[in-house]
Design a protein that fits this description.
Number of domains: 1
Radius of gyration: 19 Å
Helix content: over 70%
Number of helices: 6
Structural class: mainly alpha
Distance between the termini: 22 Å
Strand content: under 5%
Number of strands: 0
Order of helices and strands: HHHHHH
Largest sheet: none
Length: about 180
């Protein structure tokens, strides 16, 4: 019976995982939109087939962010959820899985911001020529466009490092709970 309850928790936790991942993407893209609107108007809105977003770019950036990340919530949670079965009770499983997903979000956000900082360090008017293949046509602020590209690329790495960090968190949390017995 306990196994069925934990199995139910596993499948139910996909809902908050998808919602949190989508919200993360929306917030992430609001931040990156603040640094380069053209990254969205010349690239992301086209990539995600959202022509209406040209008229409502902030809202469009939020929608694109949610579309770009909700599925990462599924992939990340498939793995994290399996580690949740380490916990004895469904309640503790749910609490610790939720916390672990917040670890993923925090590490992902930090990694994305570090990517943006790295972009500011390496991309300037003198080095922009090296990144011409990254720049879409008609972009008037290519330096900012590429810097935000670094942020977006780093965020994918942040998803992976966030997943690994969350697994470590769950292993330590499990050890903490089993040490209390």
């Amino acid at each position: 019976m306990q196994y069925l309850n934990k199995t139910g928790v596993y499948f139910l936790m996909f809902i908050p995982a998808i919602i949190i991942a989508g919200l993360y993407g929306s917030v992430h893209d609001q931040i990156s939109f603040s640094f380069s609107t053209e990254y969205f108007t010349h690239f992301k809105f086209i990539q995600f087939n959202t022509p209406w977003a040209q008229d409502f770019p902030r809202l469009g950036a939020a929608v694109v962010g949610a579309k770009a990340t909700w599925w990462m919530g599924v992939l990340v949670f498939i793995v994290l959820g399996l580690f949740g079965f380490l916990f004895d009770s469904p309640k503790i499983m749910a609490i610790e899985l939720f916390k672990s997903f917040l670890v993923v979000v925090l590490v992902g956000l930090i990694t994305g911001c570090l990517g943006l900082i790295y972009g500011y360090i390496v991309v300037n008017d003198q080095s922009i020529e090296q990144y011409q293949s990254w720049i879409w046509s008609d972009v008037t602020h290519p330096v900012q466009f590429v810097r935000v590209g670094f942020m977006h690329n780093a965020s994918y790495l942040g998803g992976l490092t966030g997943l690994l960090s969350a697994i470590v968190y769950l292993l330590f949390a499990h050890k903490r709970y089993t040490g209390l017995k």
